[in-house]
Amino acid sequence: MTRPAAQVSPAIDPQRLLAAYFVLIWGSGYVATKIALQDASPFSFLTLRFAVATLVLIPVVLWLRPRWPATRAEWLHIIVAGLLMHGFNLGGSHYAQFLGLSASMSALILAFQPLVTALWLTARGRDRLEPLQWLGVAVGLLGVTGIVWRGLDLRTMTVAGLSCALFALASISTATLYQRRFCPAVDLRSASLIQTAATLALFAPLAWLVEGFDLRPSARLFGATLFLVVFATLLAVSALHWLMRRGAATRVTSLLYLTPVVTLGVEWLIFRVSPDRLSLAGAAAACLGVWLVTRQSGATAPPQRA
Fold this sequence. Notes:
The protein is mainly α and 306 residues long. The protein has twelve helices and no strands. α4 packs antiparallel against α6 (131-148).
């Protein structure tokens, strides 16, 4: 009697795991930042965050001995990409909220990144989206709007706050494409240390001159900082860059539509903020939008240069 052939379980796709990790941490990061800013001003908190990140990375890099940039141009590209991603993006979004812009309005503005990325790459002929994928970009953005709608307050909008949020949007959109274009083969371990140190050098004088280094030590500030340093600054950003190297940019950035869905769940778990029907409908639309953008049709095209 012949035994049935053993069924072989499909291999775990590392891209799916990294994508899930990135979405989970990026969405949770908004809540962690909200907690941290209760005890710190924006630039002072970011100085603390990147000082801790740099101190954590130094022994790790000394132990792992990764490849360092070989040329001045490579050093410069890594620093520019890091300042765009960490410095200008986070500085702009945090300061927009400090100036009074609601977190919901800031999240909505930053949710335009997949659309900005798609329009830019399409205009340059680097990425071709199918009609259903364009629909997914639109549906995802509509979903994010539904999620944050309850917290939108047009009275919080000022020219300065809106400008900071738009600056953050331009920075993170440029950063993902810049690193993909100019740093395609850098070692992410050494690059992370270079970028955190460069961002620390940017924020430390701003924290001192603008805010007088305004920090009020507390357990929640320490916990939020540690979470953001280890899981977001060091791991989630590296996951994003790894995904950008191996997938179409629009598909990868569309994952950002899912971060408000995670934030919605985390806020419910921590603060017991119950989502309303519109938020739940928005979450469903955001998931549908990401599925439409990331669904595979036919052969998968190789990554395009930005």
